Amino acid sequence: MADKSVLIVEDEDNFARALDIILTRHGYTTHRVSDGDAALTALNDNPPAVVLLDVLLPNRSGFEICQTIRQTPHLQDTRIVMMSARNGQAEQRKGMAMGADAFLNKPFPTSDLLSLIDELTGKDTHA
């Protein structure tokens, strides 16, 4: 996958800003939105390679967005990484069942995030 774009869907501004900085410094093009409706608009306007998707969002949940992505033909190649601060295994199972490619419990090590995004985008980490 040549596309190195990541849509960050996170309503906690400081956390979203940190993710944006980390991913940009690692060579990704990012776009940030803070609610479910804006996420759906961004996905349709410019589908990213990866969506970094919080579970709890204003307007629409991350679960609903995940399900919409999986049901939308032009988004079928989009990789989804769901994340939550609630650390519940039930949430993780639900996210994976709805079609997420991975699930991260907040807080998570930066190295775990970067390794996962690199793997999902096919980025050569040895370049």
Question: Quick gist of this model?
Answer:
With 127 residues, the protein is α/β, with parallel strands linked by helices.
What does this entry look like structurally?
This protein is an alpha/beta fold and 127 residues long. It has a single domain (5-121), classed as Response regulator (Rossmann fold). The chain is built from 5 helices and 5 strands; from the N terminus they run E-H-E-H-E-H-E-H-E-H. It has helices at 13-25, 36-45, 62-71, 89-97, 110-121; strands at 5-9, 29-33, 50-54, 79-84, 102-105. A 5-stranded parallel beta sheet has the order 2-1-3-4-5, with helices on both faces. The chain starts with a strand and ends in a 6-residue tail after the last helix. The model has no long low-confidence stretch (mean pLDDT 92).
Give the key terms.
CheY-like_superfamily; alpha/beta; 5 helices; about 130 residues; Rossmann fold; five-stranded parallel sheet; Response regulator receiver protein; single chain; phosphoprotein
Spatial strand sequence of the major β-sheet: 2-1-3-4-5
The total of helices stands at 5
Radius of gyration: 13 Å
The CATH superfamily title: Response regulator
**Strand content of the residues, in percent?**
15-25%
Overall number of strands: 5
Specify the biggest β-sheet: 5 strands, parallel
Helix content range of the residues, please?
40-55%
**Structural class based on helices, strands and sheet pairing:** alpha/beta
CATH fold-level name = Rossmann fold
CATH architecture heading: 3-Layer(aba) Sandwich
Taking all residues together, what is the mean pLDDT? Answer: 92
